[in-house]
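Contributing: when you submit paired examples, paste them exactly as shown. First protein:
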Amino acid sequence: MKRDPEAQEKRCTKCGEMKPLSAFDKNRDGRPYLHSACRTCRSAAAYQWWLDNKDRAADTRRRRELAGYGMTVEEYDDLLARQDGHCGICEAVDAGADHKRLPVDHDHATGRVRGLLCHRCNRALGLLGDDIDLLRKAIKYLEGAESN
């Protein structure tokens, strides 16, 4: 059954309610059609899928994230074991109260993985632009501040 192109409403295939066209998302594939289920039903279905598949979704997200560094989960776990679960700089074990893993530290120019750092150390290197000369100046500054 074809929908009247002049119609201002459409029936949702999930809840069966007639709703305004603004309640339906456009297809992302470029076709000029609206989804058959309304935004509310699609959102509820996506949330339910996430509730049913949290572990699977987290595993997929982790694998994708590590693939960006050219690593597998097994390689990450091996590197974590070699570092005894500690940050490569401050040797903290806790990755942070709201984080479960140590972030992957990498050279932004080459993409080469250097190790695993806690969030604080990883951010510190990033804020200093991975600049060794700037890090030396920071050390010199701190050492000079101690003697004052």
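Second protein:
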Amino acid sequence: MRTLVLTGEGFSLKDLEAVAHRRVRVCLAPGAARRIRASRRVVDRLASRGTVSYGITTGFGRFSDVVIPKDKIGQLQRNLIRSHAAGVGDPLPAEAVRAMIALRANTLARGFSGIRLETVERLLALLDRDVIPVVPEKGSVGASGDLAPLAHLALALMGEGEVFFRGRRMRASRALAAARLHPVELAAKEGLALINGVQMTCAVGGLALARAARVVRAADLAGALTVDACRGTDVAFDARIVDARPHPGARASAANLRRLLAGSGIRESHRDCGQIQDNYSLRCMPQVHGSVRDALAFAGRVLDIEMNSATDNPMVFARDGEVLSGGNFHGAPVGAVFDLGAIVLTDLASISERRLERLLNPSLSGLPGFLTPDGGLHSGFMMAQVTAAALTSECKVLSHPASCDSIPTGAAKEDHVSMSPIAARKFAAVVDNVATVVGIELLAGCQALEFLRPLRSSAMLERARARVRRRVPAWKRDRFIAPDLEAGRELILHGLDELLADLE
């Protein structure tokens, strides 16, 4: 297992996935440790002198004008975590919580938070020992960051609340003891340092963004299968066409489609049939799939900045010896792009579902209805299309932006909030829905090829068909279909990586 060294810079989406799935160990770079110590010295100096400084010697939010006695400063930080651990709903998946921990540690590695080095190291020890705090998925508005989710994380660090450990949900105090970790006794500023920022938003949305990148490549694969099975033309993917309107995503998608269809015997069998152009869901794939690619690439650039940013409040500038209050914790940048991601992926589901209709409708495809050889007695893919339609419609509801909403909180101190965690959770739900829709198209495209034998598709598409057939046999008669649809989804998300690696 390799080691990921946190510097506060260069943390990538691939790193996020690696941490989430326990493929790396995580530690702090020496430079990060020096920055953390330097900012901590500023906090210790202010606390020892009793200097009035927000969140260090004062209360929080509406109580920022209340000065806290020196002997109560530690209690202030512990009270902050306990009172802010107000999340509700189902626990986040362990992968998302691991990602949260790494993201928060990388933010602290920037050295603007005033936290003690030993506290950051204890946070990383949770990752190393796989002690996963129970973090409810709901309760954050993305205002001063994801306060409630991050407070649940910090609560476990204090030995309070609950965690998952060795496959069981248990009290944090018990798990820490079993993992040979001591609870952290929070000191001045440390509660704030652990909870200001949108690391829950970035963890959930970032992992969804990584899945989305696989889905959009797989959509080119599934779409190419549909084009060939429907005996469509590849003319619309000609490089001269997309180069005349050179959006990067469209050019990449068209290149993929040309490569996927190259050498297809099915295409050659009808090259002189006289059909000039196909319907939009086939012909406009580069433009639609490409717009999804471009939007997700933009989201990735925003996320790269956010994952490597200091998001605390107040921020400690060790070189100047100053502590300044600001708004870097606000989730607006990431909330907006995760909303955008949900919108464009919903369009991807929509075009995939329409291609599925062309495969299953015999008046459009010239193939047996619902791709069953004995229609009437057998229903074939009839209900699979209904499932795809249902998920596509659900995506349309989920793609309503969360980031355009705001409800003031904190006695109007927090009078404009981002709703970024809601945007991230909706985006994640859309990604999983679209993976299923594209998976259904993939299965239908492979089934359609069965009716065109002895003609064969391209080498790449035949490889894809063979890979699918290792998981899902051809349909000769009706059978329990739900496991096949789940297998299709898993193939889109995980099972085609070798094939998709050859695509742009």
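If you have annotations for the second protein, write them as plain sentences, like these:
The chain is about 55% helix and 5% strand.
The chain has a mean pLDDT of 95.
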